[in-house]
Amino acid sequence: MEKIEHLGIAVKSLATSNSLFEKLLGVAPYKEEEVASEGVKTSFFRTGESKIELLEASNPDSPIARFIDKKGEGIHHIAFAVNDIKSEMARLKAEGFVLLNEEPKMGADNKWVCFLHPKSSNGVLVELCQDRG
Ligand code: ZN
Q1: What is the distance, to the nearest Å, from the Cα of residue 80 to the centroid of all Cα atoms in its chain?
Q2: What is the C-alpha R_g of the chain?
Q3: CB 85 within 8 A of CB 131
Q4: CA distance 107 to 131
Q5: Residue 38 above 90 pLDDT?
Q6: Is there a contact between 104 and 112 (Cβ–Cβ < 8 Å)?
């Protein structure tokens, strides 16, 4: 793991939360992107070396919609930057973590991603992400 790449925050409305986080961080989002396969619309903010990802459900069956139903808005995942996602996935699987996808998949912000089930990491949804270059 190289560093925390971003924190993901589940929100009900990207439009409302974009303006809230713009006030909080003093910068506008540098991109908005829909990841249709995941049922999410995202926006990304930079603050220093770190990033914040806001996630809004794009359909009622989206994992983000289910998360908000259960827990309300708030921190959804921690994403770590990795250099070699396949070897990190193999290492973590061997350590007993439960991978939610067995192959890296295309995530937002030009990344390969893999998620770890929160039940194997103290209730924290962990994302690995590697730049697609
Ligand atoms: Zn993320």
Answers
A1: 10
A2: 14
A3: no
A4: 10
A5: no
A6: yes
- What spacing in Å lies between the alpha carbon of 77 and ligand 1's midpoint? 7
The set of residues, in sequence order, having a beta carbon less than 8 Å from that of 72 and lying 6+ positions away, is: none
Find out whether 87 and 93 touch, Cβ atoms under 8 Å.
no
Indicate the burial class of 48 (C-beta count within 10 angstroms; 0-12, 13-18, 19 or more).
exposed
What integer pLDDT is reported at residue 12 of this predicted model?
98
Residue with more model confidence, 85 or 37: 85
* Res. 37: pLDDT tops 90: no
Distance 53 CA to ligand 1 centre (A): 6
* Distance (Å) from CA 27 to ligand 1 centroid: 19
Residue 16 clears pLDDT 90, i.e. is over it:
yes
Kindly state the tokens that stand for 112: 């390969």
In three-state secondary structure terms, 26 is: coil
Angle at 49 between CA 77 and CA 103, to 5 degrees: 40
Give the separation between CA 42 and CA 27, rounded to whole angstroms: 16
Q: Compute the average pLDDT of residues 60-73.
A: 95
CB under 5 Å of ion ligand 1: residues? 8, 53, 79, 127
**pTM to 2 decimal places:** 0.93
